[in-house]
Amino acid sequence: MREAWDHSTAGYAFLSSEGLVTYGNEYSSELFGNVATEKELGARFSEVPAQGRAASLLTIVPGVTVAGEVESIPVTGGRWLLFRLSPDALDQNRLFSAILDSAGALLVVLDRDFRFVRFNRAAETLTGYGRDEVLGAAVWDVFCTAETEKQVELLYRSMDPNSSRFQRECEWRAKNGSIKTISWMQTVLRDEHGDLQFVVSTGVDVTGSRKAEQALRSLSEQALKEIQEERSTTSRFLHDTVSQDLVALSFSLSRLQQNQQTAAGLQAISQSMELLDRCCRDVRLLSYLLAPPLFEEIGLIPALEWYGGHLQREAGMSVELDFELLSTLPSQERQALIFAALQACVARSVRQMDKTAKTVGLRVLDGMLSLRYDSIAAVRRREPEDVESISAEFQLIRERLRHIGGRLDLEAANGGIVVTVAVPMQGR
Predict the structure, then answer these.
(1) How far apart are alpha carbons 203 and 289 in whole angstroms?
(2) Helix or strand (DSSP H, E) at 65
(3) pLDDT tens, position by position, 262-291
(4) Which of the residues in the chain have pLDDT under 50?
């Protein structure tokens, strides 16, 4: 008798007095997957009589409702539920299942309690779980770690009742223990009362992309660090070696000048000393452009003030500082990014021998520490600044800022360039 029920062309399910589905034959499993309670199964029918037979509309999959017949037979310990669809309706269900399984993306369907009712072949392949292992189980019971289980359950149960589409990214634990990062687009289907009935989720495995982004983030961070170390090494060499040699040469020329008798010799020595003084200034300027001293010791704002004064004295560059009074600053690493961006701006101006007035502003806006470098030319250039070509000079800093949630914006204005750098005060 049991074998006849298992392979019957009608659906059989036994509902215990506690409301549990204790038996479902092959036909019912093909239609619904695994269901756990009478409420879950009964919700699929527009009408389930307490006893007897009734015509009913049956929701076999989200968005697909077909005509059928349902009969309820009370017995000791519960009741039997019998249902039958037309051959066309059953074919429709099989076609829908085939479409799900042929899709390359992950396609899963959750019921109102966020239990799996559909789980396509792509999801099986990625996670290592067969559909029979997950149908009827909640998302957090299968794919979440002990640390994230409660958090994910809360995330689902607190879904905005006024929204029908959600996009989110989460991590699933595969059967072999590996962690998969999946980007989901989720659509909520509601019943005639507006209550959640199904969640249809389409997912894409982005594990490789996120690992590549992490590798790029680490690479850009390491590249910036190595660049700063190389700049510091070069700056120390210029300051400790080249500058000292130039000073020694200056003393030698001074002594030679004292012992020189001819007017022509004195003039040549005087010209040489002028050139030497210019070289000394250029070496000091280059040394400070590469790695200004004192930044790590005195902090961002005093270093910016010192830097502005130094540029005015050594490079003849007029720099106006406009700083907001700040009670707190972001981490040392983020301050260093602000300073590195300013160095890049100044170095570019020095290369172009641009001595027009510069304004450096520092503000906190919307939780971001923002530095604005305003280099507006006094006389408008014939050719406007090419922002795209300038952008390449800041690419490494921009990439590093992007990874921490910051940004670097460039804007050509009035023949000059405006650079805005912003880093989060807090966060990742």
Answers:
(1) 49
(2) strand 64-75
(3) 777 777 777 777 777 777 776 766 666 666
(4) 377-382
